[in-house]
Design goal:
Radius of gyration: 20 Å
Strand content: 15-25%
Distance between the termini: 54 Å
Shape: globular
Number of helices: 12
Helix content: 25-40%
CATH topology: Rossmann fold
Length: about 375
């Protein structure tokens, strides 16, 4: 069964195709003929978790670039538990779908048109995975395995590039002062455990030749735009985002808590660079810790004050939360990501730059009064 209707990118059309079970709808659109100078060939890209913050930003970047790895994008398929919005300004075919990869047959439908590159971002976040054990394993483990199995069973030589968004939550205390590439995985949360399992599965399916995989362990991504989510790490963003919007923010941990950060800009860059890396450069160790910067909550607040002013930083209210503090205490604080850096991955080197990036990208250079 074809997951989507045929999309002719030379016509101004809207296409709708409904899966046989009637549960998922793929919606497509296209505009004028694709014309991306200097790009060769064409490709199909699938993004799972495309309605999330990083998924939306990755989509927007791909729409802006029009291609990846030297090839023009012919079709992009966007899936999530809720149907992602069609991106603005797109010049190639796009199909969207509400899809739960942990549901029988959903992953097979998502890859039915054999995407060349798959960005697997679909997941529930750390706090929610800890609060709802069954849901965490269903989405983060069963959804990932379902996708890998669908690829394996597709047959006929199908071997896509799959970029898996993992997390530094795969590491658990006790930690050395700086965590290097040789440090072992001992997660202390359900979310971290689920991501570690995903890394192992990805490595095994890659070793067996079913796909060309790479796992990237994302730092905590700040500043996340929009409303707070259920991630235990959400306060790292909210103590910057809300004050910049003229609102009060709650800080549930002490200012000496240290953590590892990168911006949404950097996260998109990681994903695109990972998709472009050749498998022979990785060897058997295909899961990588991404570069970032380490700083304390107090240093975050100091950066906010330097960039936006002391009055903005005073909008943070201290309200200790023992549950959040316990979770955060088991998280890593500092990394030596030299292997990823040597492979060309890049991130910010100061928290001031992260704050400025948020103001530029999300606030139009305007700070709330």
């Amino acid at each position: 069964m074809a997951a989507i209707a045929h999309l002719d990118i030379r016509m101004d059309i809207a296409v709708v195709a409904v899966c046989r079970q009637g549960r998922e709808m793929f919606r497509g659109s296209a505009t004028s003929p694709l014309n991306v100078g200097g790009l060769r060939g064409q490709m199909h890209i699938l993004i799972t978790g495309a309605a999330g913050m990083i998924g939306r930003k990755l989509t927007a970047r791909l729409v802006r670039d029009g291609g990846l790895s030297g090839r023009a994008i012919e079709l992009m398929t966007l899936t999530d538990i809720v149907e992602p919005e069609l991106p603005a300004g797109v010049t190639f075919a796009v199909a969207t779908a509400a899809s739960d990869l942990a549901t029988a047959g959903a992953a097979a439908r998502a890859i039915a048109d054999r995407p060349d590159i798959i960005f697997h971002l679909a997941a529930i976040v750390s706090g929610e995975a800890e609060a709802d054990f069954e849901k965490g394993y269903r989405v983060n483990f069963e959804g990932t395995r379902g996708l890998l199995e669908a690829i394996r069973l597709a047959g006929d030589g199908y071997r896509p590039k799959l970029v898996f968004a993992s997390s530094i939550a795969v590491f658990g205390a006790p930690f050395p002062d700086t965590i290097g590439d040789e440090f072992f995985l001992t997660p202390l949360t359900s979310y971290g455990t689920q991501k570690a399992i995903g890394e192992l599965l990805l490595a095994d399916y890659t070793r067996r030749g079913f796909l060309d995989g790479i796992g990237i362990r994302l730092p905590t991504i700040v500043v996340r735009p929009g409303k707070p989510n259920k991630a235990a790490s959400g306060f790292f963003s909210s103590i910057i985002r809300e004050p910049l919007n003229g609102q009060e923010a709650v800080l549930p941990v002490s200012e000496d808590v240290r953590h590892w950060f990168a911006s949404p800009r950097a996260a998109v860059g990681f994903l695109l660079h990972a998709a472009d890396l050749k498998g022979d450069r990785l060897g058997a160790r295909i899961n990588l810790t991404m570069p970032g910067l380490t700083c304390t909550v107090g240093e975050e607040i100091a950066a906010l004050a330097r960039v936006a002013g002391a009055d903005v930083a005073r909008r943070i209210r201290r309200e200790p939360d023992a549950t959040v503090a316990k979770i955060v205490a088991g998280w890593p604080q500092n990394f030596d990501a030299r292997r990823a850096t040597a492979l060309g991955f890049r991130a910010e080197t100061s928290f001031d730059d992260i704050v400025r990036a948020h103001i530029e990208d999300e606030l139009g250079e305007q700070i709330g009064g």
